Known about the structure:
Blueprint: H1 9-26, H2 51-54, H3 61-69, H4 76-93, H5 99-123, H6 138-149, H7 153-169
Amino acid sequence: xxxxxxxxxxxxxxxxxxxxxxxxxxxxxxxxxxxxxxxxxxxxxxxxxxxxxxxxxxxxxxxxxxxxxxxxxxxxxxxxxxxxxxxxxxxxxxxxxxxxxxxxxxxxxxxxxxxxxxxxxxxxxxxxxxxxxxxxxxxxxxxxxxxxxxxxxxxxxxxxxxxxxxxxxxxxxx
Length: 174
């Protein structure tokens, strides 16, 4: 007698959430840089003490990654709301002509579009289909989620420095 394994709704939802997260992290918009990089961690309280006076509900991609890992999100909409909060915080704190503000604006628009598309597929009971970043394996997506969930301030600073050096060497100034 054969037993069929039917994926549970929670398992399917988690795959959607991981793909949504990966797509956000891999999004470049029309540019050459990943828009989400700056959102991995909140600004340092030491370097930006006023951030925490202005922003009452701070959130970053590290917190979102940990919520996915702990299965705190019960819907795609819940994750979308956190992404909107994150981008709205960046827009509230940064000047409208800054690159962070512009990236937050693009990322918010992209995340809302993706959330609507994924929620529609999920709510229609469609089996999971990796449409957003099909060139990336499940393992690569999980590795990125784990990496961001565990990123330290030192790792983040090193990553931003490396990105700055790459942009300078390519003549790209942000």
